[in-house]
Design a protein that fits this description.
Number of strands: 11
Shape: globular
Number of domains: 2
Largest sheet: 9 strands, mixed
Radius of gyration: 21 Å
Helix content: 40-55%
Strand content: 15-25%
Distance between the termini: 21 Å
Structural class: alpha/beta
CATH topology of the largest domain: D-Maltodextrin-Binding Protein, domain 2
CATH class of the largest domain: Alpha Beta
CATH architecture of the largest domain: 3-Layer(aba) Sandwich
Number of helices: 16
Order of helices and strands: HEHEHEHHEEHEHHHEHEHEHHEHHEH
Oligomer: single chain
CATH superfamily of the largest domain: Periplasmic binding protein-like II
Length: 362
């Protein structure tokens, strides 16, 4: 079972502020209403905290005088939202890196406060990346990654992942029903997007997906269940082909490994910001989220985190050599299709059970 870093309480987090203040740029604009105030912001930790500190936390403090105290939360913060809203005892004021499927759940359970969608920056963000309770500030794409030192001719689709004669070698797949069913149907000739869910609207469609997975199972050397593991598998050369998140494959390539990404048939999802319902500093949190909608701020996080900005104007601030590596870069986005969060939320329990039972058979 995966473990997560302990998330400090609000009081403990605030005690760290004095020690960490020197690391945060001194604000150039202080106002009577915001000076010396704080926001405790949770995020997934690691590279997210690093990227958000540089792109959001420090610049927001510099502009407003509002100090940001980052704390690490669980990968899926739904339980933390629910506990805080139920008890009205808040460890943090808002959370970033919340995936769109989790945001749908939080909204359905009435666990989040409204955000402020006014202003030019919010207006620039596509409608499917925002709603009254959630702002997605980044996109992440699940892609096919491969070792370029193993293949003279590059694979171009998930069908090539299944083609062990043309593309022999060791495979790794993710131990997650949703992503594996999606790519199995792509490999079987179903276009990504709505056609996937049309096929899965009947029992025969599910049978088709699992039949396709059974074809590749003997070739799977590793079933990975943590994202960093997929980076290590590619970087070390333990496997030759591995569907994974674009950032994880890019991390292996940036470390010097001969790894390339196939954007064709990618499946992308969103991550962003939400405020627990009843949070006492919701007004400050809304102001912070508006800051995160700005094109220059979204561009800034891409130097550390290769997620794709949702504000299209962000690409004005991103060098071309970096832009082409991002999920929302127009050429990459055009070859990907968004996951249907609502569909997978409805079918999660059933698909997870069937997938886990299928794994045990092999």
């Amino acid at each position: 079972m995966q473990t997560y870093p302990h998330s400090p309480s609000r009081r403990a987090a605030l005690r760290t502020l004095a020690a960490g203040a020197a690391a945060i740029a001194a604000p150039t604009v202080w106002t009577r209403s915001y000076a010396a105030q704080t926001l405790v912001v949770s995020d997934p930790g690691g590279i997210y905290t690093t990227a958000y500190t540089e792109a959001y936390y420090q610049p927001f403090t510099k502009e407003t005088g509002i100090q940001i105290v980052p704390v690490v939360r669980r990968s899926n913060p739904a339980a933390e939202f629910k506990a805080q809203v139920s008890t009205q005892n808040f460890n943090w004021d808002l959370s970033g890196g919340v995936t769109s499927d989790v945001s749908d759940l939080l909204i359905a359970q009435k666990l989040v406060d409204k955000i402020d969608l006014s202003g030019d920056a919010m207006a620039a963000i596509p409608a499917d990346c925002k709603n009254d309770y959630y702002l997605a500030d980044s996109g992440v794409t699940f892609v096919l990654a491969y070792r370029t030192d193993r293949y003279k001719n590059a694979p171009t689709s998930y069908a090539d992942l299944w083609d062990t004669e043309k593309f022999p070698g060791r495979r790794a797949l993710r131990k997650l029903a949703r992503d594996m069913i999606e790519i199995a149907l792509r490999a079987d000739g179903v276009p990504g997007g709505p056609e996937i869910y049309k096929v899965l609207s009947t029992p025969a469609g599910w049978d088709r997906a699992f039949a396709k997975l059974s074809q590749i199972r003997p070739q799977v050397k590793v079933w990975w269940d943590s994202s960093p593991q997929s980076t290590q598998l590619l970087q070390s050369g333990e496997v030759d082909m591995c569907p994974t998140f674009n950032g994880r494959a890019q991390a292996a390539a940036d470390a010097g490994a001969p790894v390339a990404l196939v954007w064709n048939e990618g499946l992308y999802s969103l991550a962003g910001w939400a405020i627990p319902r009843g949070a006492p500093k919701a007004d400050l949190a809304r102001r912070f989220i508006q800051f995160c909608a700005r094109a220059d701020r979204q561009a800034a996080y891409t130097s550390k985190l290769v997620n794709g900005p949702t504000n299209p104007d962000a690409y004005r601030y991103i060098a071309k050599e970096l832009a082409v590596k991002l999920p929302t870069y127009p050429d990459n986005l055009a070859r990907s299709r968004r996951l249907d969060d609502a569909f997978w939320s409805r079918n999660k329990a059933m698909s997870d059970q069937r997938f886990n039972e299928w794994l045990l058979q092999g």
